[in-house]
Amino acid sequence: MTQLIGRVVATERKPNTTHEFHFWTSLAAQIGIGSIVRVVAEAQTVYGVVVEGFSYTDLMSPLHDYIGADADPEAEAHAPSARPEIRLYSAAVLRREPEEPVQPVPMGAVHLADDSDVVVGLRMDSYVGVENETGIPLGLYTSGGLEARVYLDADFLLGPEAAHLNITGVSGLATKTSLVEFLLASVFEHMPENKGSVAAVCFNVKGSDLLFLDQPGELDESDLHMYGLLKVPAEPFDNVRYFAPYRADGWNLNTLRTHAELMSNVRPLRWGLKEVLQFSEVLLTRDDLDAKADALVDFIRDRVLDQRFGPDSGHAVMRNHLVRTFRDLEDWFDDVLACCEQSGSDRWMTHHTATVRKVRNRLNGIVSRAHGLVVNDDAVSDLPWGDFEDRAVYVVDVANVEPEAQDLVFARVVSKLREGLESGTLGVKHVIVFADELNKYAPSDGPETYVRKMLLDISERGRYLGLVLFGAQQFRSQVHRRVVGNCGSAIYGRMDMDELATPGYSVLSPATKTKLASLPKGDLMVRHPHFTQPVFIRFPKPAVMRGRDGIELFAPRQELPFEDAIAQGLKRLDDRVPLNEVKDLIAGRDRAEVLQAFHHTERGQPDDALAFFRSRLKKKIASEVVETPRRPVAVPEDPYAGD
Amino acid sequence: MRLVHTADLHLGYRAYHRTNAYGINIREADVARVFRELLEKTAKIAPDLLLIAGDIFHTVRPSNAAIADAFRQFSRFREKAPDTAVVIIAGNHDSPRAAETGNILRLFAEIPGFQVAHQEPKRLRFPALDTAVLCLPHNSLFAERQPAIEPDPDAGINILMAHGAHEDLKLISHFGAALLRSSDIKPAEWSYVALGHYHLYESLAPNMIYPGAIERTSMDVWSEAGRPKGFVELETEDGKMTFHELEGTRPVIDLKPIAGRDLPPRELNSLIESALEGVSGGIDEKIIRLRVFDVPRDVYRELDHRKIREYRNQALHFNLDARPPQVTRLSGSGAPGRRLTLREELTEFLKHRWKPDSRQVDREALIELGRRYLQEAEEAEALEDRE
Lengths: 643, 387
Hints:
The complex is a heterodimer.
Chain A: E1 3-9, E2 20-25, E3 36-40, E4 45-57, H1 62-68, E5 85-97, E6 109-112, H2 115-121, E7 135-143, E8 146-153, H3 154-157, E9 165-168, H4 176-190, E10 198-204, H5 221-230, E11 240-245, E12 266-269, H6 273-277, H7 280-283, H8 291-304, E13 308-309, E14 321-322, H9 326-343, E15 347-348, E16 351-352, H10 353-369, E17 393-397, H11 403-423, E18 430-435, H12 438-441, H13 450-465, E19 467-473, H14 481-485, E20 489-492, H15 497-500, H16 510-517, E21 523-527, E22 535-538, H17 547-553, H18 562-573, H19 579-586, H20 591-604, H21 609-616, E23 623-625
Parallel strand pairs in A: 9-19, 9-20, 10-17, 10-18, 11-12, 11-17, 18-19
Antiparallel strand pairs in A: 1-2, 1-6, 2-5, 3-4, 3-6, 4-5, 7-8, 13-14, 15-16, 20-21, 21-22
Helix pairs in contact in A: 8-10, 9-10, 11-13, 18-19, 18-20, 20-21
Chain B: E1 2-6, H1 26-45, E2 49-53, H2 64-80, E3 85-89, E4 114-117, E5 122-126, E6 131-136, E7 157-163, E8 165-166, E9 179-180, H3 182-185, E10 192-196, E11 202-205, E12 208-210, E13 230-235, E14 240-245, E15 252-254, E16 258-259, H4 265-277, E17 287-293, H5 297-301, H6 305-314, E18 317-322, H7 342-353, H8 363-386
C-alpha cells in the first residue's frame, strides 16, 4: 500500500500544466526535492518528481507578524495559537498513464512512490523485469524509507541505441572515479548475455585512484546493504592489467604502483617508430606541421616505414633501407639529404630540403620529448591488441607523464581500440573508455587538437562500434558541446554554484540547483534517455581500495639502481630468476645493451626469462690462446707462371 | 710490439678484358703482383703481427689461380717471416651469404701461424706479445646476436679488427658492409682499431685506421686515381705509425676535363690529343679517363675515332667520357600558363613524353589514332546532349 501524502492543487495564479503540477502535503510528509510521487485521479495516473517546495502561512505580510509580536522575538513563545502552515510542492511530470491525451495534471491524491512506481515512473518497465532485460543497476532512489533500484538501459548506455556517460562534479567528493568504479562492476555483473563481451580501458591521468582496482576497499554496513540490493558483488575487480611507461632513465616504471607485491600485473608501455608515426601530429604542433611537412610525414608513413626502400626497389636514394626504428629513420634522412647535396638539388622527389630537415628534426625530437614512452629501438611493449579479455580492466597510467606524451597515449590507444572494434579483432565486443579531465582533452574552446577530434569521433560514432566513452570533468559547460551532447546518460555530483549558473543548467529548478550544490558524498543526479526528468540517487562506495589507502598500504618503492631494477624486472617475469646471477651477468656491460635485452625479454614473455635475456645480450667473446708453432712450410708452384 | 695492418687485397679482381701472354687478366695479374710486393715488404719489416682486415679475395668463389697464388705467397711469407703471427678476417667480398657455401679463407688456417676468423667473432690472445686481437669478420656483424665489442682486461695491448663502413666516412653506399659506429666500437678503449672495407687510406682517429686497398679495385676506380696505395706499420710502444707505399700499382689517371661547348670536332680532336700527350711517361699500359663536357652527339660522331681506337690500344684502358650538353627545360607540365586542351595534352604526351617499348611503333600514326578516338568521343557526346 503506498503512502498518501497530499493532494494536487491548482489556482489561477499557479495552475497545473501538462508538465508540471502542484500539491500540498502535511508537515510530517517524508518528501523533498527529488522525491517521486504518484497522482491518482479518476481517469489517469501521473508520476512526477518534486522540483520545488514552498512553505507559507495565512500571514498577509511580514509586517503583521512583526507588529503582532511587538518586535520581540521572544513573544512568539507566548502566542495563544500557532499560525497554520502549508507545505506546497511543485513536481515535474515523469510519466502519465494513459500517455494520451496529454492533458494538464488533474486534481487527485498524491502518493509517495513505491518500488513499482519508481520502475514505471522512470519508464524502466521497458527494460527491467521483462524478457531479455537490459537493466544495469546504477544506485538506489531513496525517499521516505523507500530504497528503490534505479537502472540504466544497457542499450542506451553501451549502444547501439545511445551510448556514453558523462560525469560532472567538483573534485574530491567521490563522485567521478568512485561512480565509474562502481558502475564498471555493475556493468560487468549485469551486462546482458546477448550483448557479448565487455572490457574497460581507464586512463589514469592524475593521482592514484585507479591504481588499486584489484585490492579490496573498506565498506561499511550501509554500503554492503546497497550492494546486496543492487545485486553487485562487493569485491574488487579480479582481472586488472596495468600499463605505464618508463621514466626517462628507461628502467624504473613511471607509476605509483611499484610495490613488489603488486607488480605481477604491471606491464610497461613502450612504443617505437611504427607505433608513434601514425600519431606524430599529436606531438607536432600545428605550426610545425604545415601541409608540406604533413605530406612528407604521410610519405614516410605510407612508403618508407617497415618497407624495403632503396635503389634496389627503384627509390631515389643511395642506400637500401628498412626503416623500423627512429635510428633507422635518422639513417634514411641522412641518405635523402646526401642525395640532395650530391645532386646539388634543393628538392628530394617533390619535397624541399628545408621541409626534409624540419620533419627530421621534429620527428627525432619526439624521442626526447616523450622519453620513457617513445624509444629508439624496436623492443616495444603495448596493450594486448587482439587479446582483450572479457570483464577485464586495462588501466593505462600516464599520471606522471608529460602532457604531450599523455595526448599521444590517449590518441593511439583510443584509435587502436576503434580499429580493433571496427574490424572485430580486438577480442571483445564492447570497450568502455574512462577518460577524466575532459576539460583538458575536449575543451569547448581553444585550438583543434587530434585528441579532441578523436573524442568527437568516439562520441559520434562509437555507439555503433561498441566503443563507449565514460567521460568526466569538473565543468561540463566547458567541454565541447558535441562531446557532452552525444552522451546518452549524464551524472551530476556536487556542483559549483558558478557552474550551475551557466546556461546549460537553466532547465533545472532553483531548488534542484541548490540541492546539486550541496549533495553529500555518494549522492548524485542522473539523466538517462528513459527518464524524462533528472533523478537523484545514491550509490555505494566502490569495493576497491582508495588510492590514498593503497599508497599507504603498498608504498611505491624507491627508484632502483640500474642492476637491481633489471634483476627485479626479470624476476617479475619469471620468479625463478636468481637476482645475483642477473647482476653478475650484466656487470660491466653497456647499459643500452642490457636495457634492450631486458625490453626484448619483457616483450617476448618467455618461459625461461633468464635464458632469453642472456640470449639477447651481446655475445661475450672468449679468448683463444695462440702459440705460434714452428712447422716447415711447403711452398706450392706459381700459378701465374712468374708474371 | 710491431704490427702491420693491411686490408682489401681483392685477389682475383678482373677488369677491362685484357689478358697477358699467359692468358691471365692483366688487372688480376696486377693485383697478384702488388700482393707479392706487400708480403715482401712486410717480411722485411718482420712485424710481430700482420693484420689483414678483410676482402682477401674479390669474390666468394675466386679462381683456382687466385687461390693457389694466395696460398703460395702466404706460404713464402711464412718461410721468410716465421715469427710473424698472421690474423685474417673475412670481408663482405669473401663472405658467402649461405653458410653451406663454406669459406675459402679457411684454407689459410692450414698455414702454421695463420689465424682466420671468417664467420664468428674471435678473440685471439698472443701471450708472448701480451696482445689480444678481437676479430669481427663481416658475417659476425650481421649475426642476430651481436658480439660484445669490448677489450680483454687481461691483455696489455688490445686490438680490434673489423670489416665494415664506419659512420664517419659518410659513404653514400656501404656496398653491403656493416655500419660501424664509434658509439659501439669506443675507439678510446682500444690500443688500435684496424679497419677494412674502405679503399682509401683514412685515419678516423689516431688509433683507428683504414689502410686502403693495395690496388685500385673500386667500382669507381677514378676516385682512387692519384691516391697512394700501401699498408700501415705501427709500433705500439711509442705509437709511431708509418704508411708504406706500394710502388707496383698500375697508374690510374683521371685527366682534367675538357669543356667542349661550341667546339668543332677538329678542335676537340686536337685538345684530346694534347691532353693525352701531356701524360707523363705516355699513356702506354695506363688506365686513363678523359671527360669532355657539352659535346653534342653530332659533334661526337665527327671525332677522329680511328685515333681514339689507337689510344685505346695503347693504354690498358682509355675511357673517353664525352657527355652531351645538359638540357634545361624552360617549361614543364607544372609551369604556369594556358592549360592545354585534351587534344593538345594527348599530342604533347605522345610526341614528347611517352617512351614506346618497341621501336616499331609509329608515333605519328598513334597520335593520329588518338586524335580520331577523341573526335569520335566528342561527337558521340554532342549527339547524346542533343537527344
